[in-house]
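for the writeup, i need someone to sanity check this before i put it in the appendix. the sequnce is what the collaborator sent (i think, or maybe the updated version? ugh). structure was predicted straight from it, no edits. if anything looks off just tell me and ill rerun, i have time this weekend
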Amino acid sequence: MLDMFSLNHLFYTGLVPLLIIGLYYAFKNRSNSFKYWFLFSLTILAWVIHFSRYWLEPDLKTYELFFTDLCGFSTLVYPFFMLSKNKILKDYMYYLGAVFAFSSLLYPNNIAGDTLFAYNTIRFFFAHVILVGVPLLLIAWKLHVPSIKHLGYMFLLLMFAAMYNMALTAFFVEVGLRNYFPNYMGIWGSGNDVYVLFESAAPWITYQKEINGVLVERPIPFVYIIPGAFLFYMSLWSIMSLPFINIKEVISKLKAKIN
């Protein structure tokens, strides 16, 4: 069984860097064109893995074929972002796609309790490895260089992905595919999960709701995550940007401004 933080879970997580490093060395001497199209083919493979659930997962619910949560959104857009020449979209893959996918691998609550070699476990693993590996290999093979100048756009894309999930979950309920609002990315409220940290960052963003005859304060869906998400992710992305900052160039520009 793949229990959270069990030996099996640690084994799966440990395979992630090994697979990415293996791919890096296996193809590092190939042409840039080959590397690019190889990575693009992996993003298409992620689509194949996603839709294979239709045939290989016997208890599949209709809504599960949609690209839900941020990892699902990343799976949807990666092929288009790979084809685009827009560097901001490539940065999305590093700052958002890889971060959220790796977080899911570290905390795979969607497959907790599944057997190690069950289809759903294997599907989840490879789908998320692709989301992590493609941007890292783009950078390692020098096909893309992330820019700290794009962090504002990253936050806007994060908010767009959150609104996408909010609209999608509302659609599920509206058409009767689900009878409750799944809390992807914590958009509907903190609940008892990690998103309570975002609620703590903005305790004033609440509304009153009557539960069992008692008025209680509840976080305003989506809006409450904005301050905490900004503080956390902008800090994280700034750290992730450090390897790509030319310190000498920054110092020379500062000296030029001073003089």
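The chain is about 60% helix and 5% strand. The chain has a mean pLDDT of 88.
thx in advance!!
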